[in-house]
Design brief:
Elements (H helix, E strand, L loop, with lengths): L14 H4 L7 E3 L3 E3 L11 H12 L7 H8 L1 H28 L6 H44 L5 H16 L4 H28 L24 H14 L6 H6 L7 H27 L13 H35 L10 H24 L3 H17 L1 H11 L9 H39 L15
């Protein structure tokens, strides 16, 4: 049986275990008995962990940052981005310490159980599934956008979404993150190369694609934007969304061979993510101004748009694969936790696992294709669930482990972390309410504009980007 609190680092299965020796069975606090007869869920090295963390954050969402800067202005935009990046960096560090203190924690629902009991577990579990299933659907649509851009709308968009669904299901059904990490490397390189191409292109071209084609032109970037409250809240929510992958770090940490290296992986991830976000946001917005596209891959003109999407399509696809895998794995662990089928190769194991991956991807496909205002709905889900899972729980987690520290042991660091914890809870709640309000108004506007008639559309969805 699983030993609660077992922090033993699980190395790759030795050769003598592969020959059938039963005496080297290892117990994991989440997965139970791990043997050579089943998948080794604890096979991630620290470098692969850093890549998976980075890829869970860096997607086409980074290319909405320049548009957010257009609303806020460069200086407030950079300050907001750095503030959110700092908060999420500390939050992600708390994920690692909380996991080390409570090794039986696998996902945000286990945190909810510790904080609020059964109600907390079910609420956060449902929020996790709903949120990431919508994001997977968004990823499938992003793949269809890329295919439309590359092929100049060579087929009905609904067909491209089906292609994205089928490919996502097949690849995300690989059972362990250790075996799936190789595509994360390729996906991260793909999206970074695509972003770099666009960044260089807008810097060397005379003007962005959306700018007037004749006459003198100069970028109309703003140092300070002066937006209305709801516009600012929506822009800040898009910045929060770019960092919302933090909630997947629990599942990634659970499959590390050496959990003690979590902080090292996180440091690499945050340096890469924050430097990418800040540099891309500033450079692209500086050269494009109010004519920046969102996502920004279309800012450099039709030809470079094709090239950029051609390079970046793997990165977009990998995002859908990774997030659908993590979501399906969460459901899978919830269903089989505490049974021998979780880590065996039994028929029940495979039936449940493939049912989970198929279920997540097919539901993501349906809601992505059937909901006429899907993009706005993703913004609503992100503003509510994404913010809720990216801020408040992490402040509560630190307080849960440290609030009762003896008064004689309360250092300056303790008081600073208490201040940070309360600030994260309050700031997250404010952003959740304001972002949700703005998203609801946008959905009403979008639904009125489309008349609710865009389900399973064949229209080219890459024209606006």
């Amino acid at each position: 049986m699983t030993k609660k609190g077992d922090l033993e680092a699980i190395e790759r299965t030795p050769s003598h275990l592969q020959q059938g020796s039963a005496k080297n069975i290892t117990n994991d606090a989440v997965f139970g008995e791990i043997t050579a007869d089943g998948p080794n869920y604890r096979s991630l090295g620290w470098i692969a962990t850093a890549i998976l963390m980075s890829k869970s954050m860096i997607g086409l969402g980074v290319l909405s940052i320049p548009a957010a800067f257009d609303v806020l202005g460069i200086i407030p935009g950079v300050l907001c981005l750095l503030a959110i990046g700092s908060l999420t960096s500390i939050s992600a560090y708390v994920v690692g310490t909380f996991k080390m203190n409570h090794s039986e924690v696998y996902a945000i629902d286990d945190v909810g159980y510790k904080l609020f009991g059964v109600v907390g577990r079910e609420f956060f579990g449902a929020a996790f599934i709903v949120y990431w299933t919508f994001v997977v659907g968004s990823g499938m649509l992003s793949v269809s956008i890329a295919l439309n851009a590359i092929s100049t709308h060579g087929a009905c968009t609904a067909v491209f979404v089906v292609v994205a669904f089928a490919a996502t299901f097949l690849v995300c059904s690989i059972r362990t993150l250790g075996r799936i990490s190789f595509i994360a490397w390729a996906g991260l390189a793909s999206i970074l190369a695509s972003i770099l191409l666009v960044t260089i292109a807008v810097g060397v071209q005379d003007r962005p694609a959306a700018a007037p084609s004749s006459g003198p032109w100069k970028s109309d970037y703003k140092l300070f934007g002066g937006p209305k409250f709801l516009d600012a809240a929506s822009a800040i929510s898009s910045l929060v969304f770019a960092y919302a992958g933090t909630t997947t770090f629990f599942a990634i940490a659970a499959e590390m061979r050496e959990p003690k290296h979590y902080a090292k992986s996180l440091t690499v991830c945050q340096i890469l993510v924050n430097s990418t976000y800040v540099s891309i946001g500033i450079v692209v917005y500086y050269f494009c101004g109010s004519y920046v596209a969102s996502p920004a891959l279309g800012s450099a003109g039709p030809l470079l748009k094709k090239v950029a999407y051609g390079i970046g399509i793997l990165g977009v696809f990998v995002s859908a694969v990774l997030l659908s895998h993590v979501t399906a794995k969460y459901i899978f662990v919830r269903l089989l936790r505490g049974t021998r089928h979780l880590t065996s190769n039994s028929p029940q194991h495979w039936l449940v696992w493939l049912s989970c991956t198929f279920g997540v991807t097919v539901v993501a496909y349906i809601i992505a294709s059937a909901i006429p205002v899907f993009n706005s709905l993703v913004s609503l889900i992100g503003a509510f669930f994404g913010t809720l899972m990216s801020f408040q729980p992490f402040g509560m987690m630190w307080l849960y482990d440290n609030w009762k520290t003896d008064k004689s042991k309360r250092s300056i660091k303790w008081y600073l972390m208490c201040t940070w914890s309360f600030f994260v809870i309050v700031a997250g709640t404010f952003l959740m309410i304001s972002g949700t309000w703005g998203s609801v108004l946008t959905i009403i506007s979008d639904y009125s504009a489309t008349g609710g008639s865009a389900a399973w559309s064949c229209a080219d969805n890459s024209n606006s980007v």
